[in-house]
Amino acid sequence: NWGMSLTADVIMYYCFGFKYLMYMLVSSLLGSGLHPIAGHFITAALGRLDQCTTVLKEMEAMNVRPDLITWATLINIHGKKQRIEEMIVLFDRMHEDNYLPDRTIWNSIIEALSNADNPDQAVKYFERMRSSNVLPDIMTWTHLFRMRAKRGQISEMKNLYYSMLLSGIKPDPPIWILMLKACRIRGDLIQAREMHQLIRSQHWRPDLVTYHNILRMYIECQAPEEAMAILKEMPEREEGWKMVLPALPLSTALSIVHQLVQSGEFRASLGVSLLQGMQGASVSEVHQLEKILQKSNQRWNGPLQEHIMLLYAQLGAPDKALSILRQYPHPYRDEHPHPHAARIQMYLLQQDIDGALSYFKECITKPGLRHSHLWSAALNACLSQQQYTDEALSIVDSLATFGVPVNGSCLTAIVKILSSVGQLDRAQEMIVQSRSQTPEMWIAFIDACHKYNQVDRILQLEDHILRDNPSLALHQALAQAYSASHPSHAQRMHA
To answer: How far apart are CA 488 and CA 495, in angstroms?
Structure first.
């Protein structure tokens, strides 16, 4: 670090002179906390509400009058924490101090009210913002659109759209995507067509993300034919096919896959997407897809084979599933875990847990097959029945023995196992240290903390839990955990 810093300083001095070098050094020191303003920014960035409140009390005790930056920081962090009442009180106190809110503060207020699903208050403060001669920017409008999109309020969004145009601001892609989302939520095909026509009327060619949202809108409005027409306009179609193929009638989808194979456009990921949507297919239809895939160069792709094997197993055709495993080239069988993980899952589908664990132990004797996919499949097999807890813990310990890197699905299974037996410290350590945290693993941990009366542990971790995984399911799990011992926190989660 010293070497990098000194090198950067030498380059700065050589290229720009002493003045600019000193400017950079002094600003770094100020940003590290030497100046009072820096403390506001650092505290807000870390999201420490308790520290913000403490700093404000210290300022009041020292008769230091908060400035606009202080008020902006406090309002912003209370808004992000969904402390709406406290945020409004701070806003009113700022007015009493004769500070006029700038656009950033107004946006913080409107964003917080929108996220709290309080449309009347959000609109009220939006009108107050305009009456204060502060012009809303694109972010202000986006917060209002997001609030309406969550409720599927298409007509209100159209009114917002025209008001925004009259104010001289043109919609950007995120606003179009929110309008498309509202149509998806409503499932109204007529409104969906009108919205699509509105986008076309702007003479604006959608980017790829907007195209994908248009496809999703038509698919969820039960109009796959119109989605197909949009797909033909797109410059890149692979992700689009993944959305459209599962929504089409199976015979049509199989015909399209055949055409894509012949044209060379077929990719293994398209086959996986189609297979995931074929849960209600017959054995003959799965066999038909298998024959089509034989003509492509993707035949021996691991995930493709895995999904076909599992489909055959679910449809009561284990012989066909095992025949696919035998068709793998011999070196591939010994070096790739996918087909073997699928076979463990086949045992699980047949409720043969002993068979699954026996096959797992046989596989991990081969160094080439020691992959987290196998551990994930074996742990999921143990999770299906409570009496296999001891075997599951020994499988978890064997990961360290063999030095196998853990992927996201395997870590989720490990957390579920450890949480179920009350090893909360170990589960927490594994989640926090992981780079692939998912809502599912946190929910398993939260449920275990609730079960073992360790809700205070969740309270300490709440900011960390919601920082990267702000999902509805997580908020519901937290609300359920808080309901008995911390009802006020449960109400905050529901809000």
So the answer is: 11
pLDDT, residue 41, reads 53
What is the per-residue pLDDT for 330?
Answer: 45
Rounded Cα distance between 360 and 398, Å, is 12
What number is the average pLDDT over the span 100-121?
88
- Please check the confidence at residue 135 and state whether its pLDDT lies above 70: yes
Q: In the predicted model, what is the mean pLDDT of residues 67-77? A: 84
What kind and span of H or E run contains 71? Answer: helix 68-80
- CA pair distance 362, 366, nearest whole angstrom: 8
Rg (CA), the chain: 28
Cα separation, 175 vs 53, in Å, equals 35
Provide the CA 477 distance to its chain's centre, in angstroms. Answer: 17
Q: With contact defined as beta carbons under 8 Å apart, do 300 and 328 qualify?
A: yes
Q: CB of 356 within 8 A of CB of 377?
A: yes
- Please tell me the distance from the alpha carbon of residue 214 to that of residue 205, in angstroms, as a whole number: 12
Query: Is residue 49 over pLDDT 80?
Result: no
Q: What does the alpha-carbon distance between residue 227 and residue 233 come to, in Å, rounded to a whole number? A: 10
From residue 275, how far is each of 216, 241, 308 by CA, in Å?
19, 13, 7
Q: Which amino acid is present at 55? A: V
**How distant, in Å, are the alpha carbons of 231, 369, 464 from that of 438?**
31, 26, 12
Q: Left if phi > 0, otherwise alpha if psi is -120 to 50, otherwise beta: which for 381?
A: alpha
Sign of the dihedral through C-alpha 20, 22, 23, 27: positive
Q: Which two tokens stand for residue 227?
A: 């989605």
For residues 334 and 311, the answer to whether their CB atoms sit within 8 Å is: no
Closest CA to 279 of 242, 243, 315: 315
Which helix (H) or strand (E) element contains residue 127?
Answer: helix 119-131
Band the pLDDT of 305: cuts 50, 70, 90: confident
What's the sign of the alpha-carbon dihedral 214, 219, 220, 223?
A: positive
* Per-residue pLDDT tens digits for 149-159: 888 888 888 89
How far is 71 from 67, CA to CA, in rounded Å?
Answer: 7
Q: What is the pLDDT of residues 355-365, one digit of tens each?
A: 889 988 888 88
d(CA 286, CA 23): 68
What is the identity of the amino acid at 338?
H
* Closest listed residue to residue 314, CA positions, set 281, 292, 284, 341: 281
What is the average pLDDT across 176-188? 88
Q: Residue 348 is encoded by which pair of tokens?
A: 């699980």
**To the nearest whole number, what is the mean pLDDT of the chain?**
82
- Measured in whole angstroms, how far is the alpha carbon of residue 183 from the centre of its chain? 21
Tokens of 318: 């284990």
pLDDT number for residue 288 = 82
